Amino acid sequence: AQNGSVRKRGPNILVTGTPGTGKTTTSSALAEATQLRHIIIGDLVKEKNLHDGWDDELDCYVINEDLVCDELEDLMEEGGNIVDYHGCDFFPERWFDRVVVLQTDNTVLYDRLSRRGYTGSKLSNNIECEIFQVLLQEAKESYPEDIVVALKSDTIEDISRNVASLTDWVGSWHPAS
Ligand code: ADP
Ligand code: MN
Q1: How would you classify the pairing of strands 148-152 and 98-103?
Q2: Beta-carbon neighbour count of residue 91 at 10 Å?
Q3: pLDDT digit string, tens, across residues 77-125
Q4: pLDDT of residue 2
Q5: Which residues contact 39 (CB under 8 A, 6 or more apart)?
Q6: Quick check: 15 and 100 in contact, CB under 8 A?
Q7: Averaged over 161-176, what is the pLDDT?
Q8: Mean pLDDT taken over the chain
Q9: Closest atom of ligand 1 to CA, residue 21
Q10: Residue 161: nearest ligand to its CA?
Q11: ipTM above 0.95, yes or no
Q12: Are 65 and 90 in contact, with CB atoms under 8 Å apart?
């Protein structure tokens, strides 16, 4: 079967964006409002060892994309997932019904990431990633144009509005036949 036809639990939504744009905050609130399952890829990678060790330079695990995809295949087929990750080009295109790219003003993002303890090149690389809209580019190259949506995430009000509109979208979603 193709696309939505097998997703009994509901649609699959990918929430992506530069670190600090609010993926986890937004996804948690959306999961609470919709009862969809929130999958934080970074946590899953750590818990299930789906990585090839630690990258000292980038200060993060080297994610093993094949292991992550194998781990998630059954859940994604079942449907009803919110996948939370700062990348999107290695997931199968058929998994997602909606791809949300969160975007934050770069001075706002700078403060958020500094507060998180990011400094030096880790901080500047992420700000650059946001300025050049790397995740929006990646999403547009990896998924059909009509399922990709960019949402502003500068303020708490933005989060409320984004969660409300995505909750409406989930409520009106029907499996493709
Ligand atoms: P991500 O998962 O994309 O790295 P988080 O959801 O962890 O981002 O958010 C990072 C920090 O920024 C958190 O302290 C969160 O409360 C704050 N934050 C995220 N989005 C917003 C927003 N739209 N308005 C205000 N604060 C936000
Ligand atoms: Mn997060």
Answers
A1: parallel
A2: 23
A3: 999 999 999 999 999 999 999 999 999 999 999 999 999 999 999 999 9
A4: 53
A5: 72, 75, 81, 82, 83, 84
A6: yes
A7: 94
A8: 95
A9: 3
A10: 1
A11: yes
A12: yes
The distance of Cα 72 from the centroid of its chain, to the nearest Å, equals: 14
Distance 24 CA to ligand 2 centre (A): 4
Express each pLDDT in 42-77 by its tens digit.
Answer: 999 999 999 999 999 888 899 999 999 999 999 999
Enter the CATH code of domain 10-160. Answer: 3.40.50.300
Domain boundaries, the chain: 10-160
Query: Quick check: 176 pLDDT over 80?
Result: no
Residue located nearest, by CA, to atom 27 of ligand 1: 22
Closest to 18 (Cα-Cα) out of 168, 127, 97, 171: 127
Within 13 Å of residue 127, how many CA atoms lie on the same side as its CB? 16
Q: What is the DSSP string of 53-85?
A: EEETTTTEEEE-HHHHHHHHHHHHHH--EEEE-
Name the residue of 112, 134, 159, 163 whose CB sits within 8 Å of the most ligand 1 atoms, as the mutation to test its pocket: 112
Residue 121 identity: S
Q: Closest-lying ligand to the alpha carbon of 130?
A: 1
Closest residue (by CA) to atom 21 of ligand 1? 22
